[in-house]
Amino acid sequence: MHQYRTHTCGQLRAADAGTTARLSGWVHRKRDHGQLLFVDLRDHYGLTQCVIDSSSPIFHEVDALRLESVVTFTGEVKKRAPETVNPKLPTGEVELAIADMVVLSQAETLPFPVNTDADYPEEIRLKYRFLDLRREAMHKNIILRSNVIASIRRRMIEQGFTEFQTPILTASSPEGARDYLVPSRLHPGTFYALPQAPQQFKQLLMVAGFDRYFQIAPCFRDEASRADRSPGEFYQLDFEMSFVTQDDVFAAIEPVLAGVFEEFGGGRTVTRPPFPRIPYEEALLKYGSDKPDLRNPIVNADAGEVFRGSGFAVFAQTLEKGGIVRAIPAPGAAARPRSWFDRLNDWARGEGAPGLGYIVFDKGEAKGPIAKFLDADRLAKLREVTGVGNGDAVFFAAGEKGAATKLAGAARQRIGAELDLVAKREFRFCWIVDFPMYELNEETGKIEFSHNPFSMPQGGLEALLTKDPLEIKAYQYDIVCNGVELSSGAIRNHLPEIMYKAFEIAGYSASEVEARFGGMLNAFKYGAPPHGGSAPGIDRIVMLLADTPNLREVVAFPMNQQAQDLLMQAPAPVPPERLKELHIKLDLPPVKKA
To answer: How far is 351 from 285, CA to CA, in rounded Å?
Structure first.
């Protein structure tokens, strides 16, 4: 018999009754029933109930076991009485009668229980992450992550992609966040950067002639924590394709994503390819966001013509100053009490807005604080642009375009949730396309890249030479699922003359472009194919499938919100001699007095 086990803790069945088995695992739970002591033994594969009678010579040793101690039990497999069968467990028809025990590792008193998925403070969970990962929900999430990655890898290979690895120590790149820098010992005063993404390398692979590349790529960004991105590192399905249009990229990745979500979605409905495509400006108008949750049926509308020149001076003056008015339909809201409308107004004020004006259409009348300022024609126009009818309401967000659009998007989500309109058990995908190539930095007044600096402008060099930069669209796209952006991507700018001009508009001289992107730019001068790709986030995919709003629930060893690894105590000081070896002197900020 094997030293540690003949079966796993999830393997024994009724057919094994009468045989001798040996199990090893963690003491998950103990239940004292007087003459009988039940011990649930757990390993990676499952859980088996073990039992020992008080007459056994080792009863007191088993009874003294602390939870989470690691033991080996040997004994006879017995069928449970029909009334004691546990249908929730694969092993629920049997139990192991303990005849012998070996304690492999005695556990100390636990800082928090492992045999429950009750919530505990994140700091203690991350400090004792090895214990947190023993909990059933966390264990399932990490296994789900592994299975999702394996499925993605298989599906990408079936689509004709080849897996490559790109460097981790590289040069700094303008990806929109701060780099993590690594000092060079051999080249004093110089630094490597951990890649924010394998962007340049995957493009170079296309120039090298490999055609279809992918990898499950680690990416490193020194940025603030968010629920949908941990500080430090994250992983993405990075892929690139040669001789493709935007349509070709979509056609390649849609079956992969739809297939993975169908495989691991637990029966939830998944958008079938081809996914809907929504232009960026249309997304902002209809959903108030470039990450729309299409499970919510509410579609916002432009109410500018309803209020332009109207008697409602607040909105009319906003429009005269170049602002906007967005209408947010609220189907069936006429039946809600006045207090509900007041709460939404209070919420809007909490978001920094003056409030949410509204009109209620009820019993053939238009009611509410704004209705009296609109004549019959304007009310008819409002019903036309919003599609509302009797029993519905309309809310309004007005102001400067950016702020009002954002408020309208947030209000759409809140109203949809409060009216219980958001579809359950669905994964709704869409592409956001036609992003602007450039945007205006309101603080500096300068033109900047709005998305990815390596994107191909729609219209090519001619557009860069003849059009207002703020009107130029790019072959850039995001894929969104349930209001979560899974990735950004683009058809790349592979022509040096277009690259020079695109960066010139954003304020970069030719010498700066050559200094910062010389490797890729030089490669383009020796024959580069048209190419494009994207990079859906692994963490976010698993977060959606696991139905958790925080990606730290699907990452084995994440940092906390302050970018600290509480388990391994990183970041940490290093000895002075190590700094000297790296030619580094510290210039620390003064310590704040308490």
So the answer is: 19
User: CA–CA separation, 144 vs 219, rounded Å?
Assistant: 21
Tokens matching residue 112: 């928090």
pLDDT band at 442; cut points 50, 70, 90: confident
What distance in Å separates the CA atoms of residue 320 and residue 324, rounded to the nearest whole number? 9
* Angstrom distance (rounded) from CA 465 to CA 189: 40
| C-alpha count within 13 angstroms, C-beta hemisphere, residue 128 | 15
| Cβ atoms of residues 532 and 492 within 8 Å | yes
pLDDT, tens digit (0-9, with 9 covering 90-100), for 34-47: 899 999 999 999 99
Q: Which residues contact 136 (CB under 8 A, 6 or more apart)?
A: 117
Question: Torsion angle, CA of 568/573/579/582, rounded to 10 degrees?
Answer: 40
Beta carbons within 8 Å of 227's beta carbon, 6+ residues apart: 549, 550, 551
Tokens for 253?
């990745």
Token digits for 139?
């264990």
Tell me the average pLDDT of the chain: 95
Q: Residues 118-146: what's their mean pLDDT?
A: 96
Residue 427 and residue 547: Cα distance in Å, rounded? 11
Rounded Cα distance, 141 and 130, in Å: 14
Q: What are phi and psi of 157, to 5 degrees?
A: -65, -40
Strand-strand pairing, 484-491 and 476-481: antiparallel
CA gap 427, 264 in Å, rounded = 11
Question: Radius of gyration (Cα) for the chain, nearest Å?
Answer: 30
Q: Which residues are 360's β-sheet partners?
A: 367, 393
pLDDT at 234 over 70: yes
Output the six-digit token pair for 425.
Answer: 């058990």
Cα–Cα separations (whole angstroms), residue 461 to 397, 447, 490, 503, 512:
39, 17, 17, 12, 20
CB 128 within 8 A of CB 112: yes
- Beta partners for residue 40, in sequence order: 29, 49
DSSP state of 113: -
CA dihedral 476, 482, 485, 487 (to 10 degrees): -70
Q: How many CB atoms lie within 10 A of CB 339?
A: 8
DSSP string, 418-472: HTT-SPSSEE-EEEEE--BSEEE-TTT--EEESS-TTBPBTTHHHHHHHS-GGG-
Question: Which tokens hold the place of 208?
Answer: 């090298």
Q: What tens digit of pLDDT does each residue of 519-545 get?
A: 889 999 999 999 999 999 999 999 999
Distance CA 188, CA 185 (A): 6
User: What's the pLDDT score for residue 226?
Assistant: 67
Q: How far is CA 243 from CA 168, 239, 248, 530, in A?
A: 27, 14, 9, 5
568 is written with which tokens? 């391994």
- Assign 3-class secondary structure to 68-107: CCEEEEEEEEEECCHHHCCCCCCCCCEEEEEEEEEEEECC
Give me the torsion for CA of 405, 406, 407, 411, rounded to 10°. Answer: 100
